[in-house]
Please model this.
Amino acid sequence: MLTVTRTIHFCAAHRLYNDSWDESKNRDVFGKCSNEGGHGHNYTLKISVTGPLNKDSGMVVNVTELRDILQQEIFDKLDHRDLDREVDFLKGMVSTMENIVVKIAENLEKPLSNLGVKLVKLELNESDKNSVTLEL
Model:
């Protein structure tokens, strides 16, 4: 099976904060990342999909169509946004990179299936030192 990977970048702000905890516990668990004003990241997201090789086109997926889905489902919704306040699919949860990548996967499942491919891996980097990988 072949795997195709596309990388996108987006900038976004968030605050690590659990509403069911008091300020002290949030500070103890999340440190400066729980500051009321939040903070931002220049995220990198690698999306890997797999599917059968189309003998006629020679492709697993048309990367232009993949690009368009990622633009609509990820970039347009997350770029230059406050992830906690402006992104519907992230509301009500602590916006850790782990939670973000799981929710991105959920949002991509149907559109990618409509392209005839399956999401197999997501890697979200919030910095050059911190990343999370979701393998499906």
Summary: The mean pLDDT is 97.
